Amino acid sequence: MSTRNVPEVAKQSKTDVFIIGAGPAGLMAAWWMARCGINARIIDKRGTKVINGHADGLRPRTDELFASMGGGIQEKIEAESYMFENLKNWVRGPDGKLTRIHTQLLCRNYVDDLPSPFLPTTISQGRIERFIIDGIDEISQGKFQVERGVMADTFTYDASLENDPNGYPIELTLRTLSDSEANPKPAPGAFGGRDVVAKGNMPRDELTHPTAPKEAPGTVEVVKARYLIGCDGGHSWLRRQLDYKTEGSTTDSVWGTMDIIPMTDFPDIFFPGFIKTDLGTLMIIPRERNLTRIYVPFSDEANGERFDRSSITLENIVAKAKKFFAPYTLDFKVCEWWTVYQVGQRVSESNQHPGNRIFLAGDAVHMHSPKVGLGMNTSMQDGYNVGWKIAMVAAGAIRDENAFLSTYAGERYPVAKQLVKFDRTLFGDHGKVDPENFRKNHVEFRDFSDGFKLEYPESVLVSQSTSKQTAATGLTVGESFKHHRVLAHATSQLCWTTKLFQSDGRFRIVLMAGDVSEPDQMARVKKLCDQLESEKKDASGKETSLLHNRYPYRFTFGQHPTQDKTLSTGQHPSITFLHEKPRTSMISLLAIHSAVKSTESLTVFDFPAALYGPFDAGYHGYDYTRILVDEAVHYDRYCDGRAYDRWGIDRTRGAVVVVRPDMHVGWVGDLEDSDALVSYFATILK
Amino acid sequence: MSTRNVPEVAKQSKTDVFIIGAGPAGLMAAWWMARCGINARIIDKRGTKVINGHADGLRPRTDELFASMGGGIQEKIEAESYMFENLKNWVRGPDGKLTRIHTQLLCRNYVDDLPSPFLPTTISQGRIERFIIDGIDEISQGKFQVERGVMADTFTYDASLENDPNGYPIELTLRTLSDSEANPKPAPGAFGGRDVVAKGNMPRDELTHPTAPKEAPGTVEVVKARYLIGCDGGHSWLRRQLDYKTEGSTTDSVWGTMDIIPMTDFPDIFFPGFIKTDLGTLMIIPRERNLTRIYVPFSDEANGERFDRSSITLENIVAKAKKFFAPYTLDFKVCEWWTVYQVGQRVSESNQHPGNRIFLAGDAVHMHSPKVGLGMNTSMQDGYNVGWKIAMVAAGAIRDENAFLSTYAGERYPVAKQLVKFDRTLFGDHGKVDPENFRKNHVEFRDFSDGFKLEYPESVLVSQSTSKQTAATGLTVGESFKHHRVLAHATSQLCWTTKLFQSDGRFRIVLMAGDVSEPDQMARVKKLCDQLESEKKDASGKETSLLHNRYPYRFTFGQHPTQDKTLSTGQHPSITFLHEKPRTSMISLLAIHSAVKSTESLTVFDFPAALYGPFDAGYHGYDYTRILVDEAVHYDRYCDGRAYDRWGIDRTRGAVVVVRPDMHVGWVGDLEDSDALVSYFATILK
Ligand SMILES: Cc1cc2nc3c(=O)[nH]c(=O)nc-3n(C[C@H](O)[C@H](O)[C@H](O)COP(=O)(O)OP(=O)(O)OC[C@H]3O[C@@H](n4cnc5c(N)ncnc54)[C@H](O)[C@@H]3O)c2cc1C
Ligand SMILES: Cc1cc2nc3c(=O)[nH]c(=O)nc-3n(C[C@H](O)[C@H](O)[C@H](O)COP(=O)(O)OP(=O)(O)OC[C@H]3O[C@@H](n4cnc5c(N)ncnc54)[C@H](O)[C@@H]3O)c2cc1C
Known about the structure:
2 copies of one chain form a homodimer. Helices cover 24% and strands 24% of the residues of chain A. By secondary structure, chain A is α+β, with helices and mostly antiparallel strands. In chain A, the strands form 5 sheets. Chain A has an 8-stranded mixed beta sheet. In chain A, strands 1, 2, 8, 9, 10, 11 and 17 form a 7-stranded mixed beta sheet that branches. Chain A has a 7-stranded mixed beta sheet with strand order 20-19-25-24-21-26-27. In chain A, a hairpin with a 5-residue loop joins strand 26 and strand 27. In chain A, helix 9 runs antiparallel to helix 10. Bound molecules: flavin-adenine dinucleotide (2 copies). Chains A, B: InterPro entries: FAD-bd, FAD/NAD-bd_sf, Phe_hydrox_C_dim_dom, PHOX_C_sf, RIFMO-like, Thioredoxin-like_sf. Chains A, B: This is Putative phenol 2-monooxygenase.
């Protein structure tokens, strides 16, 4: 940890949560701070967000997070992104001819099954960052913004304050950079003298985005923080401050990458693909806005020696790519971005400081080949995971903060290791690619890479030990919820469960109510609801109801102090956005039953009051939206009445499922298991 | 026509197209002007757009127009709107009990058939206007905006200039209103003394919207125009200037309407519904943002006499509604909007001046009961229809301007008459509603009200006489195209045909290429393409090709003079938004073939060059996006390979379909009917 060297006059400040780095990981963590109204800051040494290039593959699981975050983030991304399917394998035979030998289906079957509401797609990292930034801007009403051109310079940590709830064990000095420091010039000749630049192909709104006002260059500030998240990328400055080693190695695999609008007579330029020749294997990734990304291998030219990648220009990449494509032509007038990189496959020795005050997320933890298409996704999932957990703790909602926060490392560190292992298997120890090998491993690692099998271990948040997994065999405790489309019992509205599980920090008790048209089953449902609503002595001896007042809602969404913007129009100060129903508890109950056609015979008021009450005397009256049904409708092909089957739940007897704020399954049981359910929450919340 | 009374010093100006009224009709017409870069203006006497209340039912056909317009308009609407299904009928029996007697399915079957890519929904008119306004702002880069608080005051018409292509036969004086004139105060006690106002429930971005800067109140301007569109609503000022009578009558049916967040124990408050009692029939329309609209009948209280509706307050409406709902409770704290209206059922004697320079659209032509849910939809469809036609003429693209423009009256006037007839049938001559009658007529008029059977008659644009309707029995010449989801042959991308038929003023030749895996069929496809590409003598004796250069593209989308905004970032002046492929011809050719699994055996380059060429040496090279296939895919349930069946096209032999810029079918024939196809365009374009 570095020594301090700060002018006496430096500005002093405090914040609860400090985030270094506003890439995909940092932005997701920051979104949670904005969402929960946490006192937080985020800096990035660069003067702008990523505008073009970098990552581009988006996985369905990440899209599910965006859908849950709301604010149109998922919809905006979907509208611009490119469906990623039908990998084409080409080889140059002994006769020198280039032939397509095989087409590989990448995508699971969405007709007979339903892997996710969303498809795997490609879209520029810059656009994704853009939409998250806009989302943060909207929910914070413009008050929470990335401080750009600001660098974290020194770091000290006072371990003695670690367990002091009022302590600020972290101290950083920040330095505002000059414009030239914050915006390094691209390499000379970046576009090979071509008369085009990248910006010409940008979406119209891409070139401006919300950014905090900047201090004068050279301004130094000393900031104290309770929690620190290092999302500062593969060369993580914070990782070095913490002296965490990285395990793994830099391979001798060097790649040139370019995002071009291709001009070619190669027929498969807009499909994902490989071209394997004696020069190695080239990779094609089609994209939105008529772009195609081409990965050109350079390692073999190094003949095993260490290779000076800074000598490679765009012209070299193009020249080599042309050799792969011959006899087809390849040219372009527009190159939106290009780079040369050497594949490293490394994992940080840890992603969390033992005191549970400092965390690393994203590339700061795991470095690997960009071509695996998981760097950005895993980084965002890291940021999302650590973000909601720190927000919960910062809001004072958590009983055992150390046990709770250490689930970050518990859940995400094995993912980091698995990711790098996957990368090594897919691309070999040398970071090279072999199409046959790719095909085999794509299938073998698919459950992991699609985010279906992450294997979050037992913890305060994942209670396999108190669960009855047999009640819902398709919803594995620890894994992400399997989303389906369901019908709202009292409104005809359809929604994906991603939308039911809004990212608002609440846990959901999903009462899979089974066949409520059977009086016996409805009696079981009522009994459970009674137990959840009934007032019982909590740890402090107070009589409280699990559902309503034992764990009051801690966040201020809808009453965020920054929402005064809307007050200028003269309405009553307490009225903002009434279409948001009030949240009063950290636990929300909703039911998904299986009684097909019962919307005629049963109204919401035939269900227990816990499912439509309490009556909100403020504005909303009863809530008609929390009873849903797994039933096929004639106006939608995805709402097909097959959710219970996928979830492995008995259609008559149902089950109970706890969905965590990040949509992972925390607990599963029968309708009679209310004691275990109550304990699940008692262990976590205070 | 009124006499002039204008200060000598008034500002003088000229414009090609002038639009009075920025409601749904005027905004749609204005969108076309912005889209095509036409010199145009739009005024509205009101100081703001509609913010709450007014119309709320959106039909799938209108959504299809939004999808074709692009810019995210459709997506934004869909994200906020409320699915409209399961009409519940309640009656009070002789015993005084209120019982649900019947549920009526409103929605067609989207599982076995595919009526549209979109569902019927409800959403506030204000939001729809908002998204169109944003769309206009975006495509005009902020340069084309509604001039608000400006009123058209006098009108003169010089018929002698009617046929002068350089003439401005129309002269208007405009007057800028004061803020109090432009923003009339709502009726006193509008919210019944309740401590809430409507704005509290608005979406966050609703209260600001782009508006042109305003002149000083009292400013008078004399403006000359070539074309004038009156979209000035039911009390149309322009209609009165033109001395057009209205046929029909004001009924004695008086309704009170309120948009509330209901607090009730009535179980079906979020379904569409009727409550029939001895007080008449009350109507329930559920909506987005937890709102429900309630229509309360008042006519019976008038006892046949003319009724002073200005005496009815919100309190009266609530009191009467409570009687309908008893024994259920009905209350609210939030009323977003309320009004009282008397149903008129009238049609203007004409919607088009014989000189083809002046047009009426929307409520200015047809007035009827709001409850039929077609006022706003028909108005938008009017505005869209007249908008593209005037844009085409103003851009100089049209051969016989009179014949072309008179198709507006030819197509839309019968729709206006049919609409009012439908309204009379549905709600009776007295504008009252009977649920049984509603049910019967809903089904009988369904094809009309859903926009499937509009029966646009034979004209320069609708050529039944030269068509061979048997080639595509499901795509009726004159009706709107039946949209389906199709697969792009060379990219894996899926799209609705709405997206293929972008509203850019182009006609599409849709070559339903049939089974191109059969060499004979591919030969037929090639032959047709050759004929369309080949250079032939046109009317002026020049050798031109129908497809490429006979009818050059007239609009400046992508090179709109207002796009200099993007140039500030320093890119090459000719490069803006390269993801838009260049449009060079008023006619675009695309193919949808039926050869399932042929994406492996056929590449784009196995098709005739007309389907992937010409090579764009500018930036894009070949076009890989214009060959599509009607094939089921494993990653989408709507792309089901059943389009040909719905279109009534032989899967082997295919057909040729001309889709007009407004997505109506203009012509249908066989692959051998190229002569008729060529003449279709020769009649329209120059
Ligand atoms: C040039 C490049 C090309 C890539 N190409 C691909 C690809 O083709 N496919 C793919 O899947 N992935 C690719 N990646 C990886 C992918 O972008 C990452 O996995 C993803 O961005 C990781 O997100 P992150 O938030 O962890 O880190 P980053 O996106 O790297 O963000 C880290 C941020 O921290 C800031 N920062 C660092 N140190 C400090 C400091 N001391 N003070 C203040 N700010 C600091 C940086 O400016 C940066 O904005 C690429 C990354 C890079 C850099
Ligand atoms: C109070 C009210 C309630 C309604 N409720 C419903 C409903 O519940 N359901 C339903 O389906 N439909 C309803 N409608 C009808 C629906 O709103 C109309 O069918 C639709 O708005 C018609 O669109 P339009 O563009 O033709 O006319 P309008 O929306 O009426 O727009 C006309 C515009 O022209 C402007 N204007 C008029 N004269 C001049 C002038 N001389 N100079 C400048 N500007 C001028 C007006 O300010 C107005 O903005 C309602 C309409 C109103 C007014």
